[in-house]
Amino acid sequence: MDFKFTDEQTMVFETAAAFLAEASDSAAVRSAMVAANGYQPGDWQRLCEEMYWQAILIPEAHDGLGLGFVEIAGILEKMGERLYCGPFIASAVVATSALAAAGSDQQQASCFPRLLAGQTAALAYLGRSDLWDSGAVTATLVADGDNWRLNGDYQLVAHAAGSDFLLLAAKRPNGELAIAIVETDSAGVTITGHPTMDQTRPLATVTAVDVTVTAGQLLNSGGCCAQLVDDLADIGAISLAADQVGGSQQSLTAAVDYTQERVQFGRTIASFQAIKHKAADMMLKVEAGRSALYYAACVAELWRQSSAAPGQLAEAAAMAKSYCSDAYYFVSGTAVQLFGGVGITAEYDIQLYFKRAKSTESYLGSGNYHRERLAEQLLGPASPADQEAL
Amino acid sequence: MDFKFTDEQTMVFETAAAFLAEASDSAAVRSAMVAANGYQPGDWQRLCEEMYWQAILIPEAHDGLGLGFVEIAGILEKMGERLYCGPFIASAVVATSALAAAGSDQQQASCFPRLLAGQTAALAYLGRSDLWDSGAVTATLVADGDNWRLNGDYQLVAHAAGSDFLLLAAKRPNGELAIAIVETDSAGVTITGHPTMDQTRPLATVTAVDVTVTAGQLLNSGGCCAQLVDDLADIGAISLAADQVGGSQQSLTAAVDYTQERVQFGRTIASFQAIKHKAADMMLKVEAGRSALYYAACVAELWRQSSAAPGQLAEAAAMAKSYCSDAYYFVSGTAVQLFGGVGITAEYDIQLYFKRAKSTESYLGSGNYHRERLAEQLLGPASPADQEAL
Amino acid sequence: MNLAQNRADELFRSEVASWLEQNLSGEFAQLRHRGGPGDEHSFVEERKAWEQCMAAGGWTCIGWPEQHGGRGASIEQQVIFNEEYARAGGPGRIGHIGETLMGPTLIAYGSAEQQARYLPGIREGREFWCQGYSEPSAGSDLGNVKTRAEQAAESGEWRINGQKVWTSWATESNYCFVVARTQPGSVGHKGLGFFMVALDQPGVTVKPIEQLTGSSEFNEVFFDDAVCADSDLVGGPEQGWQVAMALLGFERGVSTLGQQMLFQNELDEVIALAKSNGSYRDVTIRQRIATAHTGLRIMRYNSMRMLAGGEDGSLSKEAMIYKLYWSSWHRNLGNLAMDVMGAQAQLLAGDGYQLSRLQGLFLYSRADTIYGGTNQIQRNLIAERALGMPREPRG
Amino acid sequence: MNLAQNRADELFRSEVASWLEQNLSGEFAQLRHRGGPGDEHSFVEERKAWEQCMAAGGWTCIGWPEQHGGRGASIEQQVIFNEEYARAGGPGRIGHIGETLMGPTLIAYGSAEQQARYLPGIREGREFWCQGYSEPSAGSDLGNVKTRAEQAAESGEWRINGQKVWTSWATESNYCFVVARTQPGSVGHKGLGFFMVALDQPGVTVKPIEQLTGSSEFNEVFFDDAVCADSDLVGGPEQGWQVAMALLGFERGVSTLGQQMLFQNELDEVIALAKSNGSYRDVTIRQRIATAHTGLRIMRYNSMRMLAGGEDGSLSKEAMIYKLYWSSWHRNLGNLAMDVMGAQAQLLAGDGYQLSRLQGLFLYSRADTIYGGTNQIQRNLIAERALGMPREPRG
Q1: Tell me, what's the ipTM?
Q2: Considering Cα of A107, then A113, then A114, then A118, what sign does the dihedral take?
Q3: Using CB atoms within 10 A as the burial measure, which of A121, C344, D16, D327 is most buried?
Q4: Does B131 touch chain D (CB under 8 A)?
Q5: Alpha-carbon span C262 to D155, nearest angstrom
Q6: C251 is catalytic
């Protein structure tokens, strides 16, 4: 048990901070916000070439870096600090994790080089948006001779538009889940990007109509993937928590800096105790969120190494996502307040953090959603009917 | 529609404040806290003789004052300010309201003179403590020749110990509710007082074993009293809200006074902005609670005059009790914090307000309990099963 | 204290309702439920026409004394009017700053000449007003106003130089009331004047501020030798503070009732959405909706208690909580609306950055706790003026 | 950064568990789960005997260096020890102030003579310590300490006069460490000394403070010409501030882990009660229990992050949040416990004012946000020292 970064990790994070400060500065973010798919493809290529972060979770045997989730969490923190807009979580974390966990040798050999070269992928599974685990899958996969036909709608798929291939979850007639690797340009696949309130996180609807799927496209030899979808949702939630910690930290830093400059009533507003106490409350939440995140990152790494205890990933993800979601909303909202009038102008960036706080709060489950998951672990189900069904 | 007190009402409240400042000062409260039934009988007699407040809700035809709930609410506010310990709510508000609303001429002619003379009564109906309306009644009333036999346990009955007679709610075999006037010293009635965390509000268990009840003892000619019990619970809740507003006001006043005296770091702590802002938040809640209370008092008065709209009393009580409960807990807890070290000593009174805030919060339904009642009015029931049952 | 409504009030209610029923139709039907918070700039010309229609019916400025063209309506009647207006889906008022702030201030502090010049334009829905209090470096601290007004010795005319900010409606208004420093070198509350400045003149530039909503509810207003006749100074050249404070009193007065009706419409929309999208089953959402309902009702009773105190704009100290209370309530409602929508709340309809009413509410309401005195300033005021705690030292 | 536990740590864990299993039995069995917050004064003599039993087994002061009688246990091992101690229901430690505050401070700043004199008594569970920092008029502001220490010219002996307050354990302790002003007329952090004062002497009077719980967790300690040898001054007569700050650093260090285990026991009791009385069905209770669970786990990871930084008592600036964090968490747990009990929470068992553990928790935890620096003071410290915001001006 050790809560200290290695020297290598510290170096990775310092490099990340320096790179992103330049490559994801305010101008770059605002350019990505209005770009076709929510990011500038050239920026992504540059990140892939200069940083090679798309390779972190790809095994060394496949020319990846073979690093782990602690590195991922630290880099995501820095991305959160800079409102980074590219498809890193969708492709380099979630989709890559799916392929690493359940891809056949052949699938890995075909997909990993593409990802390493800068292509991107996205996992789609949400048929409904009030649940965030495998229970939300509504698409269907039915046999059609030697192949299958996949049909269904997927909502709120982050970074689907612009991706090169998709991982589509679907239900077999017996209720088991499968995940199919499907090219974006396959017949029957439609991706519709939507404008979003938080313009730094693009969302799309994916529709599959009679999409032909071969055996070779199914992950895990076509075996049941419900647990995998659940786990990937947790991996996604932990990734968002990392983004939230970074965004919270930057909101705090920016607000404290601003209050040290802004003069009202003849004093910097940082000298007012009410402002100082708000800042103290913000820092408490930032640091507590960071602790929850680092624990969750360690658990995610255990999961990657197939050595997490049952329920451990779910618990860690629920704690991190619930705490960090609420913390980011509080911290960025308070930061807007401390900025005062300019905080609500389009010109200042702090409002972008506030919007990202709200969009990452609800995505993959709000604080309340994840607390209820924890409550079920601690107390059992709430309703007597569910209780009896056990 | 008019939100101003009449001159008469203002005078009543000023008199009340002056009387209670002396008759319910800290020494009187602390003496009551350790008295046998939670109050000094002599103090109650004095209040009845000098103030005649037990007569407020008794009709003039029965030698009462024939005033209304606005007067009651204002006096209860003053009582809350002084942590008044006597059985005013139990006897002069709730039990008196029950008799006024549903007592026969004969019952009123026999009970009102006793109450005017200083005897006291209490309503008991709670067979369980997770519900606060007529659904909580578990005692039974079964026919026995010309009479009935009443059996059951009643929990958390405020000011039952020391009372002269009881109003006992019980279920008939057909599920209808009845309320019986029962002398405290009747055969089969046992009242057990309990020590309580908040020593200013005594609670007792009442047990009835084969208590004989005659037709003349049943309110409302023995007719169904479920609605009456529900209404009395709401009257009780509004009364507690009044106590809470008064207690909140006094907690705020005492805390502000203390911070103006206490010097730390070379300044009165009232000059620290963090303290000022806490006080501002406290005042906001006190005043908002007072507004909720005054509306509820007006609705209770409409109810007394049988002219409230259906659901109006329930809504007003739920709004007042939920807001004022949470406000009192917040305001008194913050006051303890502003008092600092001395706030948690037995010597200072502020902790007594904090305890009373907590005891009145849960009693007759917490904030959450009453908000769920409002939600049901606004949104319908939460569970699909209940929804279908409609 | 009682809730009964008398017969005259009931008649008044049906008169309002039937007038609105008949008139909010035809060309005006499209205005129903439009122009609320976050939607202020929809149908501006049509809504100005609607103001004139209301004026023709005698339904503007009903609380003003009859001698100034009002109906001398009682507080109760004004409450009723606002209730019925909201029930009918009456559009957000464009004339409200003139009707509820500038008009009552002129009635209390203006000269007969000023009243004769400006009240009819307000009452008839022809002339619209905006507010010039806040400044970039002063925030909402009037004592720190830097805008200067200098009087020409011969003409008596004032020349105004400086900048105001957070001025709603500046693009659609004819006049702005401006607090400016008439005594060079004066500090704090002394040496301020209260000027009625025409916006349609070369010395005034209005620059909309793009906000986080993508729209521009607020403006910067630049005064560069803007001209104001001496007859458009309200009170003396050193009475600006008193006049401005009286106006703020009106801001916390009857004008709040109309705002609350808009809030009620928003809350109703949130409740309807919760019922239709299934989130009504979520106990935490239920609790928050009940809290919002209770909070809005209390806001109303707060107002009525305060208004019961007096009708002269000098409210009781309890009125000091009003801004903190409503801005916090409204901000919470915005967040509740988003949570009722769930993750779907992120999706915008159409192209560009087009927010639905509830999405706009969420973002726009973040301004509420800032403009017109931040929540921090409000808490200072409550502590110092209502609770008598020590004043915050200046640096 | 990883969560793996190595083989040596696993062996250590079973060694602790089996020792506790064997020894927390017989006469000591009754001590299981006793002596936690709000229950400190139960079985004091028995728990002192238990401390000596632990000492005999080598289980006190395990984090101390071996040269001072400890085991030189790593942070991980200390975590493991505390976990197993809590799992076994080990009673609240009476020696914790000596073990986790005074001992480490003496090891860092004491002379060899002082170490030889006092460390064995602590390690062997023979001598117990309490803390003399706060004063009635100074609150927790050490810079405002008024207690005076004057040195006799010939003997070098110090005479101490003044009053301390909020001193836990003063009635059961042998020694108190006292911060007192050695330079008459000095102000702030200068001119303070750090003294180890024997309580069993005529110049010391201990007066328990009756609290809202009806019990007396805290005391006033009066020094009236109390005597302290010059050899019992830690550091020089003007180094009291530095020594006291280092001690506060230890307070935020490893000693927090034991406290967290007691918190876990309390939370477990709340969860068990919710399951048994049906309140687990209440969604709002479920949310709060999940919040409490998350909060306590985060408290642990907070500590481990801070401890990973250094083992010398000089913690990272993130450690400044510790007191505010735990006190707020604990206070919320107390309120949650009451709400899980519902209205029944009002009923006390037995006669007199006997609180159950959870009832006591509710009332007692209100002190947590006050003593040892109120939450307000903590926020000042965080803003000023961790975030670099301007210092609060003194009057």
Answers
A1: 0.95
A2: positive
A3: A121
A4: no
A5: 81
A6: yes
